[in-house]
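re: ur question from earlier - yeah i can do the single chain one, its not a big deal. heres the input i used so u can compare w yours
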Amino acid sequence: MSANANLRHPPGQNVEGLINRADNGQRGGGQDTVTAATPLIRLAGVDNVDTWLGFDFGGVKVAFFMKNVFDKVVSVLTLMSGRLSFIVRNSLPRPTGLSVAMRF
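and the output i got, formated as tokens:
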């Protein structure tokens, strides 16, 4: 399941304010590494929110972004040997940054 919302509003002449929020989620399922030696590993439900806020100055867009807003750590991969897990990979922590794009 997912939802995406965008808002564009001109706070001044030749400037446009931009806000985006993306919600993504997953329920159920299993990891695809099922073999005779490896049992089905059930996936937990996941909810993720990404957002960015920026301005468009006549073709130059500057935006601050944040992924995984609520900083949830989710196991995205588990490798098993028999009944013991020997590799567990978790989701990335909360990445943030600044994006600059020019339209020409």
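The radius of gyration is 20 Å. not sure if urs matches, ping me
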